[in-house]
């Protein structure tokens, strides 16, 4: 089955700096890659996703890049703010395989003032 | 997020007891999922259901059971066979194929149930 590795497990940045979280996946058939944000004590929420026919997608201060050849994808957050502090999860799925998401182990992002 | 609920928020169980976690959604979603979240391990899929009266095992189904008798409901039973049941349990739903490609995969999560075995 699919295996998703996520790095780093913790990340501390200064407010205004950029943050990058990286994930690799094992199943070349995977074609959907969402990122979820989970604030302390709350449910995960989708912040951005990308499909395998696209190399990059942006939404304001967040962007995701995908390298299908290398089987890795990354989340980029620019101009970080304290409210960006949370745990971020990447995931991968093959949309022809029942919409099963395989999640990475999460990155605890802390934005320091 | 609104539209998918889980109850109770906190649940305590004695060893050897079965317990059932509730998950309800009013989003008219076809697909529903149960995940277990442990510190440092991300979310792991327990069971999922693409349509009423059908469900499949996920990656860690042992010691758990589910039913999908109604579109809106997907209860999870944690049985006494689950050796380490203390965890945070998250239910999710998605539109499935009915939503078309743009919405097919987005999963919406409930607020979770924290189960503690005493």
Quick overview of this protein structure:
The complex is a heterodimer of chains A (113) and B (118). Chain A is mainly beta.
Structure description:
The complex is a heterodimer of chains A (113) and B (118). Chain A is mainly beta. Helices cover 0% and strands 54% of the residues of chain A. Chain A contains no helices and 11 strands. In chain A, strands 2, 4, 5, 9, 10 and 11 form a 6-stranded mixed β-sheet that branches. Chain A is globular, with a radius of gyration of 14 Å. The model of chain A has no long low-confidence stretch (mean pLDDT 94). Chain B is mainly beta and 118 residues long. Chain B has 1 helix and 11 strands; from the N terminus they run βββββββββαββ. Chain B has one helix at 100-104, and strands at residues 4-7, 10-13, 19-25, 31-37, 43-51, 54-57, 64-66, 76-78, 87-94, 108-109, 113-117. In chain B, strands 2, 4, 5, 6, 9, 10 and 11 form a 7-stranded mixed β-sheet that branches. A 4-stranded antiparallel β-sheet of chain B has the order 1-3-8-7, with no helix packed on it. In chain B, a hairpin with a 5-residue loop joins β4 (31-37) and β5 (43-51). Chain B is globular, with a radius of gyration of 14 Å. Chain B starts with a strand and ends with a strand. The model of chain B has no long low-confidence stretch (mean pLDDT 90). The interface between A and B is medium-sized, with 23 and 28 residues.
Please work out how many helical segments of chain B DSSP would assign: 1
Order of helices and strands of chain A: EEEEEEEEEEE
Oligomerization: heterodimer
Residue stretches of chain A low in confidence (pLDDT < 50, at least 5 long) are: none
Give the fraction of residues assigned to helices of chain A: under 10%
- Describe the global form of chain A: globular
Uncertain stretches of 5 or more adjacent residues of chain B: none
What's the end-to-end separation of chain B, in Å? 31 Å
Strand content of chain A: over 45%
